[in-house]
Amino acid sequence: MNIPILSSLIFLPTIGAIFIFFSRSKNEKYNSSKYVALFITIANFFLSIYLWLIFDQSTSDFQFVETREWIPGFINYKVGVDGISILFIILTTFITPICVVSVNKTIKSRLKDFLISILLLETLMIGVFCSLDLVIFYLFFEGGLIPMFLIIGIWGGERRVYSAFKFFLFTLLGSVLMLVAIISIYWLTGTTDVVKLYEIGIDAKYQNLLWLAFFSSFAVKTPMWPVHTWLPDAHVEAPTAGSVILAAILLKMAGYGFLRFSIGLFPIGSEYFVPLVYILSLIAIIYTSLVALMQEDMKKLIAYSSVAHMGFVTLGIFTLTQQGLEGSIFQMISHGLVSAALFLCVGVVYERMHTRLIKDYGGLVSIMPKYAIVFMIFALGSLSLPGTSGFIGEFLILMGAFKKNFLVATVASVGVILGAAYILWLYKRVIFGKIKNQEVTKMLDLNKHEILILWSLAVPIIFFGFYPEPLINTMEVSINNLIDMYNSNLSNNIVMSK
Description:
Largest sheet: 2 strands, antiparallel
Order of helices and strands: HHEEHHHHHHHHHHHHHHHHHHH
Mean pLDDT: 88
Radius of gyration: 22 Å
Number of strands: 2
Strand content: under 5%
Shape: globular
Distance between the termini: 47 Å
Strand order of the largest sheet: 1-2
Number of helices: 21
């Protein structure tokens, strides 16, 4: 095929954003802009599904590769996908139209600008997962800060400006060292082409420093303890659609970076710093789970739970086992669906009561039974109950952890118990009990629009919980190749150092 399918996926949302921008009139027709954005994002989702259907799962090679000279003799625009990146692309194209649909009541001003920001953000996120050049990756990776900064800063809550700047400064400063590392890699090897770097390798004596430079960026974006404090503030102040896209996709960009670059390019550094990652991951799992138990704001509780779940992800990645790596990817996909759904559930009751405090609710099961059912599905997915997608990811991660370090796996298992504690306690206080606030009795159950959005997330959570094979089959060959490449490069560097 001569059709540049990846470039189409990347830039179709930008075309939609340009169309919406130039369709302005004196009397803004908000609905027409939303329909344009919805059409573009749904079309992009179906294009990603087509990409998945024609993807060859039997090879670990990058497919649908496009290369164009951008800055002659220095940087090429190079994109491609393998069994790892294609799953994140599908997650991105699936979540984005849900975000567009969810703005129906939540965004009451400058809706066109909001939709433009969402569409541009989709372009940048897909670009991250397709990039096969370090400079192109960096541009997409950091470019996503701008529309997210605007989404929080313009359409957020009362402390939106503070939260937006905190988000921007944390993530930008964390990436400065990564930019220095990319320049250093070009100086050392003469290329920023990821595929070529895999082939030629990077000198062992520089790998620890380069690994730390990339880690400084990915750790903030994951976010890992102790640089996680920007996330709860960003989630609390962001509009519902902003929280959904932040939790479901933006956090996964850092996890993908660990897989693609930290392990792929710096095997010596990855091996050396495994204990550091284990310690930080375990602190994130246990500490933030305990903090989540103490939260009175529903959004903050879910935000801290995201830090804990991403702690499992980083733990699984650096077990450097097939089960751990597959589990971490599966967990990221599952968390993308579950966290998006939980934030949407909070948005549903917030639109009715204009409060996110847990104490203001209670007894919703008798007032909103449809809401109680879908909220239960997402709560069970968050605590990784068998039969939900969350179980598959955490089970594989713990299997990989037990193979590498029994003590680490045992401590991480405590996080599973704590995760069940905070999410079930949240559900109990909001859904069950006596109705203490009479305003709750005036709340209406889910309408057709909300049922469509929430069940579109509930179905894949249950489906992949019972039938994970489509995701496992897609990533398996690429994961095995990543492990083989890691072990081979590690062995070669050890021999050379001797």
